[in-house]
Amino acid sequence: MGTLLKPKRLVVTFIMLLLGMLMIVPFLYMISFSLKTPLELTKNPASILVGRPYFGNFATVFTHKTYFIWYFNSFKVVLGLLVLRGLLVTMAAYAFARLEFRLKNAIFLVLLAKMMIPSDTTIVARFLLYKYLHLNNTHWVLILPAAFDVFFLFLLRQFFIVIPREISEAAIIDGCSHYKVYYRIILPLAKPALVTMVLFTFLWTWNDFASPFVFITDMKKQLLTVGLSYFQTEAGADYSLQMAGAAAAVVPTILLFIFTQKYFVEGVTMSGVKG
Description:
Layout: H1 2-34, H2 38-43, H3 56-62, H4 67-98, H5 104-114, H6 123-132, H7 140-143, H8 150-162, H9 165-173, H10 178-189, H11 191-206, H12 210-215, H13 224-235, H14 239-249, H15 251-270
Helix pairs in contact: 1-14, 3-14, 4-8, 4-11, 4-13, 9-10, 11-15, 13-14
């Protein structure tokens, strides 16, 4: 039976390898364009090969007056969101996974239904609401509305359910409160799911363009994604310069994934074991 499945596995592995290589192509083009002069890019824009690397684009980017301000702003928003989301979502997931209260399943279904509403359809209403609350043009407008996320509530709830109830019940019998069970037992055992939430939160917030573009108008408060588009306009459609800025911007996400990929795979796998 194993010998019959082996050719199929080889075919699947080959197909996945091809798909993986296709996904790397845009990244290779970004690196290639960032190492070319604007003149070289104009002459042969489809070529991915680099003759003599030109590092002047990176020098221009790193000496830009607001590039590292945008970089810092992006880190500030990501870290602030991680702290708030880590507190709110983990506590809510523990309540839905371990506590019994009235209308628990109904409330959870209502929260899940929220995922069916595209965020773009509410952008005008959100803009008016944030303006009334005086949140527009501040970093809080990106942190507070995103602090509670239903997707991560579902992910962590599923993971908490997998953890045997006998562990928390024994701790409660020994005198532990639910709060102590939550942060001394459940959270340490849920490290893969927590790392998965951190990774997704970082990627989605770091790469978000629409929210900062709509809700923040001061360029000194702007995030890196929007700043790069302004950077291109300021430079007169200099794509090689923009690619250099994008290449530097992608470094934190690559490093984060390298150090968390083990926990990421484990978290996604275990969170779907039991419903």
